[in-house]
Design goal:
The structure is a homodimer of 352-residue chains.
Chain A: E1 5-10, H1 40-46, E2 57-62, H2 66-72, E3 81-84, H3 90-104, E4 109-114, E5 118-119, H4 122-137, E6 142-147, E7 158-166, E8 174-180, H5 185-193, E9 197-207, H6 208-218, H7 220-228, H8 237-245, H9 254-259, E10 265-270, E11 274-275, H10 280-286, E12 295-297, E13 301-304, E14 310-313, E15 318-322, E16 327-332, E17 335-340, H11 347-350
Parallel strand pairs in A: 1-2, 1-4, 2-3, 6-10, 12-14, 13-15, 14-16
Antiparallel strand pairs in A: 4-9, 5-11, 6-9, 7-8, 7-9, 8-10, 16-17
Helix pairs in contact in A: 3-6, 3-7, 6-7
Chain lengths: 352, 352
């Protein structure tokens, strides 16, 4: 009995906002961005320990990152690492892995998570995930996790919940009224004044029948591609067929493809110190800091008259920084970035 | 006939003010600090081209830098590189090389120069040096070069000249009244208000008899050490004896040992764009700058909203700097320094 709980880690992103620490060749999920000895992918895997048996952990990633996944998660079966021949956003990724899981466990309960976020309060995170997995084991619900907002963040999508009544079987789970795209700051302020708006963390819980049926209803073309492949999952023909067919999938997010269309969507409001680490600023916020608000990762870093800065070095053996306030100093494989934190949205441009 | 003009390059310094670009293992004279493809030692050698034949070029350096000198100045005879077993300031260095030159050319005219300064106007420099060498060929004068000051610099010693009359044989050469130690800024201001104060560039011109006799008179103990060795100069025994005796020499500068004591000292006031490159600030001043006053040495350096800064990188392949004003960014062999130019006097402390 391998257990009914499955974990899907989406590890195909190629974030360049953390350049040069994160590059297309080595995106941030494969980097020890916290300087804790584990990469974000490993931390993601770790936080599901005890909830999902290792043989039920699935990673969907780009073919070019396969070796990184094998290396960083050596315990999971090689066959559980699904390789996308090209990037097609989250809907094709989730469709592929859902049919694949269905082929081995038609009664699977699944939690889907990004690979490059962090969670500070892991016990609370585990409680929430277990609770949601228990819920979807007994219902055809699509459950999202809603992060209680503490600031008018414009970098996240919001979930508007109907808090007037919770589900009968789980008092912490509510119906979703609507999904909201990333708002401007005035709209974000209005959202957080109300108590029924939550950040969309991109973590989903459902059973395999529910998600497969949702794809069949709302994305029939996408469904046909993976439905057709049922005979080949787990055979040698699988990768070859995926390499041919995956590029034909529409480039579409699961939010847009399913969540915003489906009727029975639920949200589990939660608070477990979550961040998508979308910016250097959020990384700084989530790292251990010295008394001047600096966070350092690397060997032998000395700071003088420096505050509110993040210093992240990889190959440098010795770093001395004097006189910086609110800066990013990042070095990776011989590439150095020095940039005001307030200008970090330009990093993508700098990296070109 | 090998010519009577000899050049002595003192290349034993271990400047750490340019850390990490310059280190005890690789001091600044061996570094291409200007980013021009030649090290300061090579630029020093180059600027005497046509004045001194290559077989008359002598380099005195620390034994540990011997290979750097052989590599950077491959044309000069290996036997012309004199190796100090330990650092003993300029007087023992000059005494050693003077007796050594005397042993091969008792009528030598000598110009002594540091190896880590720069000269912008080389033709004028050459004119001055040739003129001074011609002068000492016919007199027992000790000639210093005096740089016309353009600011109340507190980092240099000053030479006070008696400008009321020049020598009969060279109208540009004057008697020295006195040598002044590095002044405070008020004193420096007073000096430059007068017209007879010049920076001491540490460049000396004399004939070998004059300097050897001066050592005999003012530094008899030092003289005895190198006089005794006359039979062994150029033999296999020389280095062994030097290794034994050099450490016995007093640690003393030629300024203090000879110049401030001797009677007949002359100064040749000159203006040829000289700098001792004693600070990152002076390096910046002397390098080619972009329109925002930045000077860069290294590969693929991109600057945004950056001004008055010097970026000097060695092993980094790519550098992006945003938002720095008046900073030093220096990297060498995996060591990175970021520091305000105004705080550069603390670099020695940072490097420890």
């Amino acid at each position: 009995m391998r257990g009914r709980n499955h974990l899907v880690i989406m590890a195909g992103g190629a974030g360049t906002r953390f350049w040069p620490m994160s590059t297309q060749d080595n995106p941030k999920q494969f980097v020890d961005v916290m300087g804790c000895g584990r990469t974000l992918l490993q931390l993601t895997y770790d936080r599901f320990g005890g909830i999902v048996p290792v043989e039920n952990v699935w990673v969907v990633t780009s073919a070019k990152y396969a070796d990184k996944v094998y290396e960083q998660l050596p315990d999971i079966p090689v066959g559980n690492v699904l390789l996308e021949p090209c990037r097609r956003n989250t809907a094709p990724c989730i469709a592929y892995v859902s049919w694949k899981i269905k082929s081995v466990d038609p009664k699977a309960n699944i939690v889907v998570t990004p690979s490059d976020h962090i969670v500070v309060n892991v016990p609370e995170f585990q409680r929430v995930v277990r609770s949601a997995l228990g819920f979807v084991a007994e219902s055809d619900a699509i459950v999202t996790l809603g992060m209680k907002p503490n600031r008018p963040e414009t970098g996240y999508g919001y979930i508007q919940a109907d808090l007037s009544y919770s589900t009968a079987r789980n008092k912490e789970i509510y119906r979703v009224d609507s999904f909201k795209e990333k708002p401007d700051v005035d709209t974000a302020r209005k959202y957080i004044m109300q108590k029924n708006f939550f950040w969309n963390a991109g973590i989903f819980i459902w059973n395999v029948s529910t998600i497969v049926n949702a794809f069949r209803v709302y994305q029939p073309a996408l469904s046909a591609i993976f439905e057709d492949m049922l005979p080949v999952y787990g055979t040698e023909a699988e990768q070859k067929l995926i390499d041919e067919r995956f590029p034909l999938c529409e480039n579409i997010s699961v939010d847009y493809a399913i969540l915003e269309k489906a009727e029975e969507i639920y949200v589990f409001p939660a608070e477990f110190g979550w961040s998508d680490l979308g910016t250097w600023g959020s990384l700084l916020q989530n790292m251990e800091k010295d008394s001047y608000g600096n966070a350092c990762t690397g060997s032998s870093i000395s700071l003088y008259e420096t505050s509110g800065s993040v210093v992240h070095t990889d190959t440098l053996r010795r770093v001395v920084v004097q006189g910086l306030e609110g800066f990013i100093v990042a070095e990776k494989d011989g590439t150095l970035l020095i940039c005001r934190l307030s200008e970090e949205q330009r990093i993508r441009q700098f990296s070109e």
